[in-house]
Amino acid sequence: MSSQVRLRLQPSARCLYDEPVQVKVAGLRPRQVVTIRARSTDEKGVEFSSSATYRADGSGEIDLDRDPSLGGSYVGVEPMGLLWSMRSETLHKRCQKNKALNPHVVKFSVHEDEGEGRLLAEATNERLLMGDGVSRLPVKEGNIQGVLFTPPGDGPFPAVLDVCSLMSEKRACLLANKGFVVLTVPVSTERPGTFNEMHLDRFEEAKDFLQRQPKVGSKGVGVISRSKGGDIALSLAAFVPGVEAVVWINGCNANLGLPLFYKNQQILSPLLFDPSKVILTESGARIIKHGVKNPLAEESKGSLIPIEQAEARFLFVAAEDDLNWDSKGYLDEMVERLKHHGKEKFESVCYPKAGHLLEPPYGPHCTSSVHGLIGFPVMWGGEPKAHAAAEVHLWKKIQEFFKTHLSCDATATEAKF
């Protein structure tokens, strides 16, 4: 390693997961070409990495906020490109970072661009999911299994129920950093294939638990969801009182897969799947988007969720390159239906070239991985650069939406790291 070359991460080598970091290199020769690399190991032990080639300026410095990558995992001026472009060398791997207590550790390094790429400098970025003072409480009460995150301070704070397809703490604790009390629960606590019906009562129980928390000040709760969690969120808004604001991300407008029960009665039939419409790609991953049957067909209308009877305000979010299902089509149908019924409490946003897995920003973009509910690799879609930009924009929009539409007795304060 060269004692002259310095790799700096500003404003700090430790930051929150959803915060940008400025990567700077100094002490190089004027106009020297180097390779900057990033690597990280996820919770499953899978390594992800990226690299980009940069040319120093006349002072021997590189600033990723200013200077373009000349080649590698991405090209152009992309300040956080080394993070979102990280990939595993193994096909169909998604970076697993779902547990709040462990930071996402990324190692940056600078290497000579010639020969064997001698190491010139390195630095470690600790990207924390939980800010100072945020509390984490595992919850196992009645039919609820989840994790509760509470911001520091006395509150009162607005409350958000995070319904995730498979258990993850990432989005919930990052929202808690922003001044929300968040309970995250999975769509099901049972193994896929071991149950044949879904009960809305369990999610109502989670909502009621959340509202009872002493620091919660909002009269109703917000619900955030993606994928299969999306139709659960819509059903909560349509059938369960006390849901005030819903963020629906790349979901369905109908009850997908299993019959939905509430108070011991079936309220929605399942929208079914046609395996013959699945497309197998050369990589071995499947495009399942076209396998979902048409929810507007006569045979499927019993699965359509009656969101027109909801009092909640909606934020509908669709990625236009979602290969998991027709999120944009479902969004358009819901917007038209609400307009037809004279409902105006909704807004929508669409992201061209973004894929299904819209998450909090600065994580590695995933194009394909094993689907946690159906067990084989699927294509998620999305052009990495556009997808990464969509995540940055959406994350701010989610926070603004909930702060605007979850009425609370006091203004929520952000947790400071």
Note down, in words, how this protein is organized.
The structure is a single chain. The strands form 6 sheets. An 8-stranded mixed β-sheet has the order 10-11-13-12-15-16-21-22, with helices on both faces. The protein is globular and about 70 Å long. It has 2 domains: 6-128, Immunoglobulin-like (Sandwich), CATH 2.60.40.2240; 135-405, Rossmann fold (3-Layer(aba) Sandwich). By secondary structure, it is of the alpha/beta class. The model is unreliable at 410-417 (pLDDT under 50). A hairpin with a 5-residue loop joins β4 (33-41) and β5. The longest helix is centred in the last third of the chain and has 22 residues, at 384-405. The protein is 17% helix and 32% strand.
CATH class of the largest domain: Alpha Beta
Rough shape? globular
Tell me, rounded to a whole number, the average pLDDT: 94
Helix/sheet category: alpha/beta
- How large is the count of helical segments? 6
What order do the helices and strands follow?
EEEEEEEHEEEEEHEEHEHEEEEEEHEEEH
Low-confidence stretches: 410-417
User: Kindly, what is the distance between the CA atoms of the first and last residues, rounded to a whole number of angstroms?
Assistant: 32 Å
Strand order of the largest sheet: 10-11-13-12-15-16-21-22
Instruction: Give a count of the beta strands, DSSP E runs of length 2 or more.
Output: 24
Radius of gyration, CA atoms, in whole angstroms: 22 Å
What CATH architecture of the largest domain do you see?
A: 3-Layer(aba) Sandwich
Helix content: 10-25%
Proportion of residues in extended strands: 25-35%
CATH topology of the largest domain, anyone? Rossmann fold
Biggest pleated-sheet summary: 8 strands, mixed
> How many separate domains?
2
Q: CATH superfamily of the largest domain, called what?
A: Alpha/Beta hydrolase fold, catalytic domain
